[in-house]
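Q: Second attempt. The first request was missing the SMILES, so the protein and adenosine-5'-triphosphate are both included now.
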Amino acid sequence: MPGAIYAEGLVKTFGDVRALDGVDFDVPEGTVLGLLGPNGAGKTTAVRVLTTLLRADSGRAEVAGLDVATQPNEVRRAIGLSGQFAAVDDYLTGRENLQMVGQLYQLPAREAKARAGDLLERFNLADAGDRTARTYSGGMRRRLDLAASLVVSPPVMFMDEPTTGLDPHNRQALWELIKELVAGGTTLLLTTQYLEEADHLADTIAVVDHGQVIARGTSDELKTRSGGDVIELVVHDRERIPEAQDILRRLGEGEPGLVAHTRRLTVPATGGAKLLAEVIRELDGRAIEIDDIGLRRPTLDDVFISLTGHSAEFDELNGAGNGNGGRDGGRDDGREKPPRGPDPGRPDPGSPGPGRTGEGPVRDDGREGGAA
Ligand SMILES: Nc1ncnc2c1ncn2[C@@H]1O[C@H](COP(=O)(O)OP(=O)(O)OP(=O)(O)O)[C@@H](O)[C@H]1O
Ligand SMILES: [Mg+2]
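A: Got both inputs this time. The predicted holo structure:
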């Protein structure tokens, strides 16, 4: 029997852009699927098709056992949706917005009121609850929109980048709410660009790029697939980085990544502690001083690089499309994004990482990874 969210061969094109290029999912009831991918990967398009807001060109999808193409009204009654762009009524207060949703779902007035108060509290909007939403900051609108999607708990929920634009405190609060929701039996499809978030919340993860699912599995399975471990080290003298890189290139698996400003090098590796010892011996032998060295499990970002040849945030940081004819070029969607500088532990987009050198892995479809 198909799961609570089921899709088979979904295709959706916009002109010559294939936003969805044959997507399949099967999400068992009461579990969370994390849809992970960079800008323009097709995440929102998938959510729009599954929530009946958009018709696929071909393929089939069922939500809560209902066909999205032929039973859209029934599907809408069975789902909750929090979109990428907050949909709140500017001229109502936060509280009124939430009560209105309760009324739409035919909650008794008292219950709608209590639920609104509770959600305002949980999303740190209690003080602002009686101001019109027009006066809210971006992060507050976002929280109000999320609260609205949680007024009732439908059996299947869709959340499109729910934590984009939230500060760490509110992000944590939402994570807790999501966990409660799922513990109560809700099936959730969540899109995110935050690898850590998918790692934290999702039972299974589907990595999407160019409208296709390029990998799926639990976060552990995906991490294992990218080669076991990562050796990470910080070179003391900047001038010695190329030599250290040579050693890693020889002993590790693939092209070492470099975060230039922190002098941090990483390379996927198999061979664990024994290999680490060998790296240390070689560095020692050439008197290359290091400030730090260790072996760690790969993050999902490492996984993304090994699958696509570029970091999940590569395109965003470079302000470029993701290699599909500039399909996302210059789109300004007014979305809030916390500014993200280069981050230790993430490859420096300004350095010759796998996406730049053309030495990244070749994708399933024969295209070479990277933003070339
Ligand atoms: N209504 C539309 N008209 C034309 N092109 C569209 C439309 N909607 C989406 N696209 C294109 O389809 C592709 C997939 O877009 P989609 O919004 O699904 O990506 P996404 O993974 O949600 O990206 P983001 O992380 O930026 O939200 C992009 O190239 C986008 O420009
Ligand atoms: Mg989107």
